[in-house]
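Support case: user asked for a sample of complex input and structure output to validate their parser. Sending the pair below.
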Amino acid sequence: MLSTTLQEALNKQVKHEAASSQSYLAMASWCDIQPGLQGVTEFFYQQSEEERQHMLKLVKYINERGGMAIVPALEQPIITFPSLKKLFEEFLKNETGVSESINDIVHLALQEKDYATHNFLQWYVAEQIEEERLARTLNEKLEMIGEDRSGLYLFDRDILAYRTSISKGDGGHRH
Ligand code: FEO
């Protein structure tokens, strides 16, 4: 059975994941109406879907452990961006925030000696390492590309492949 404190923390995380899903949906939708960003658009549609799965996993876990998952109300995410670079900075900022909040719950689970929740959260810890690395790599690439349109063309063409290579653990390489 989950303690009230952990249940609240996990429900807060449900909201965080749901809000991430909405933010990435908004990013996908903004990219969708910019010229030539089909790859980035698809990347964020997929990213939004992934965050929904992260939320769902938490909802099911809370209920399974005798708690009650709360489907949250959400604020409207940012829906327009001054540039693609700014959008990717938001992406990284959000992922860093998610990692911090996962770490806080891991800490809480240990304090409460809830090893089942601690164990459950390890999946999120590993996932966040990947997500942060991905977001950082993409930001670094955009930094390098600057205003170079052919660089941007390649970035958009290859972005889905970057994700695959990073989740396989080769780090999307920093060379
Ligand atoms: Fe589920 Fe990318 O945080």
